[in-house]
Amino acid sequence: MPYYPIDDDNRGFNYDITTFWEHMVSEYTGLNMLDVEELDYIDYLQYRRDAFIYKQSQTESGVEYLENAFRLEQTKPDRQKLKQFL
Predict the structure, then answer these.
(1) Which residue among 1, 12, 27, 42 is least crowded, i.e. fewest CB within 10 A of its CB?
(2) Domain carrying residue 36
């Protein structure tokens, strides 16, 4: 799952939504909630990841989040960009 730390403490409420991910997968795949619950775990995780990326890609701030998360996942330096700075 792409992750980038953000300040998310100001949501306006203190309750967790326990079926948030299942609902997101249901919206993304078109499956009902019961069918989502019946998915193999690996399939569910893949749909969850894809649904999250799709939802984030719909807004400007979400695209920024995904770009930052991708940048933080990189383990090898981008040598071409480094040469531009040196």
Answers:
(1) 12
(2) 20-85
Q: What is the mean pLDDT of residues 46-74?
A: 95
Q: How many CB atoms lie within 10 A of CB 58?
A: 8
Looking at the 3D structure of the chain, how many domains does it have?
A: 1
The answer to the question of residue 45 being in a domain is yes
- Within a domain: residue 40? yes
pTM of the model: 0.75
Which tokens belong to 6? 């953000």
User: Residue 30: which region, alpha, beta or left (left: phi > 0; alpha: psi -120 to 50)?
Assistant: left
At position 69, the amino acid (one-letter code) is: A
